[in-house]
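[Q] Does anyone have a clean structure-token version of this?
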Amino acid sequence: MGERIHFYEDIEVGDEIEELEICPTTADVVRYVEVARMQSGRFTDDAYARNEGLPGAIIPGNMSLGFLSRMVTEFFPTGTLRNLTANFRATVPHNTPLICGGVVTEKQEEQGRHLVFCDVLMSNEAGDRYVQGTAQVALPTRQSGGDC
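[A] Here you go.
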């Protein structure tokens, strides 16, 4: 693991969030949909997904959001993820190396909270964008002793 940001004072607009590289397998997706009780074959069966007009079985949107959330919370381990939005640009296939990344776009102090705003993105190695969105993280300051 690389650099992690623990305090509001340690991050600046333009700083990049450390990337999360992940390659969800079909087995990973099957386990996810079983636990989440998602009964659609579009997530686990290529033939079923193709019958619905998809190129093959796809990763559920909530699973993609989980990867983006993981990236943000691992980078800001003392922070609180207050908001995560997403725009799904394309279906996400199984067994494809994915890169989750982000950049800090704004810092703001609001009602005693120290907030960091980020643009986040999930893409493949070729740069095709699957999911893009924003994240808002509340971080503690050094003076606050760790309280957001």
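[Q] Thanks! Anything notable?
[A] Helices lie at 26-36, 46-51, 61-75.
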